[in-house]
Q: What sequence folds into this?
């Protein structure tokens, strides 16, 4: 399929929804989508597709009782405030803001239009909500925050690579959540007697230098924190990890599908599906301030066995048996 055919199919089928479906009678709702990845990114197509499919199940059909305004920063976080302001000018009923800086950008331009987060790492620490149970403002949605996820990620790395003692942690210093996540990594590392070493990448141009530095520091494994920019460039990061022969743990299964060794964290598909339920409640009159932010309860482990073999690693059978998916 060439690019023109792909874009046509994307706009004409997946995002548009089946026009023959039964929608809610009466009012036509207008919602805004504020995304961080390009709309043609395969993972973005799939995740937003899950969201719109759930909306259809709830009775909202684009072209009948639903109008969708889509704005995507395509990896350029500095564009998000202007894109969010555009949605505000269009007077959308709710803004669905993707991870990382998108909810913060939306919050900076409106205190009245409801905002639903798809997967925010630490909405309290980043100042988006007062607390999880009673958000108190115009923002609610889903939180990735899990107190022991960093410990489990490092423990899984240790299980896969028993002799690992130095772990390189890739962070984006512009991501406000990473300071907290790095502290959690450091606490977990002490209990496992692992030395974490943080490396930074503000944009894709800094990836090569960061991974070269990891090799110089003799890191035995890597941990990549969750970040929209890292997600967008997941294939390149996986390729660099393979080039440096660095077994690396990620947060989302999409990283493992792109060639990363392992991923342990929340299912983005499940979260995008649940976000549609928040949108439904708000369109029916609920206020974000009264809708508790939901935390991740189900975590999944994905192992790329093909990558493991390329790195010369033998993943213990006990670990493979616990995996939710093994990519071969």
A:
């Amino acid at each position: 399929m060439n690019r023109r055919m792909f874009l046509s199919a994307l706009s004409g089928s997946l995002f548009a929804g089946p026009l023959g479906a039964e929608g809610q009678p009466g009012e036509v709702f207008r919602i805004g989508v504020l995304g961080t990845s390009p709309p043609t990114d395969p993972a973005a197509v799939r995740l937003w597709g899950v969201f719109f499919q759930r909306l259809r199940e709830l009775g909202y059909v684009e072209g009948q009782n639903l109008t969708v305004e889509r704005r995507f920063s395509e990896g350029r976080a500095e564009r998000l405030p202007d894109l969010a302001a555009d949605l505000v000018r269009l007077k959308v009923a709710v803004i669905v803001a993707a991870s990382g800086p998108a909810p913060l950008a939306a919050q900076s331009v409106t205190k009245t239009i409801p905002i639903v987060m798809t997967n925010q790492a630490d909405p309290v620490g980043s100042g988006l909500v007062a607390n999880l149970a009673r958000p108190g403002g115009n923002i609610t949605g889903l939180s990735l925050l899990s107190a022991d996820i960093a410990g489990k990620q490092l423990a899984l790395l240790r299980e896969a690579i028993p002799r690992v003692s130095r772990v390189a942690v890739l962070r984006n210093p512009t991501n406000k959540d990473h300071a907290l996540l790095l502290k959690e990594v450091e606490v977990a590392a002490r209990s496992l007697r692992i030395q974490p070493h943080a490396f930074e990448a503000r944009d894709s141009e800094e990836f090569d230098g960061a991974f070269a530095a990891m090799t110089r520091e003799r890191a035995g494994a890597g941990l990549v924190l969750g970040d929209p920019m890292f997600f967008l460039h997941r294939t390149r990061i996986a390729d660099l990890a393979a080039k440096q022969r660095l077994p690396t743990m990620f947060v989302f299964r999409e990283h493992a599908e792109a060639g990363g060794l392992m991923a342990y964290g929340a299912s983005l598909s499940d979260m995008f599906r649940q976000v549609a339920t928040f949108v439904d409640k708000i369109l029916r009159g609920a206020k974000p301030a009264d809708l508790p932010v939901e935390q991740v309860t189900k975590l999944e482990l994905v192992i790329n066995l093909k990558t493991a073999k390329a790195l010369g690693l033998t993943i213990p059978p006990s670990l493979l048996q616990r995996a939710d998916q093994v990519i071969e």
Remarks:
- Residues 42-57 form the longest helix (16 residues).
- The radius of gyration is 20 Å.
- The chain is about 40% helix and 20% strand.
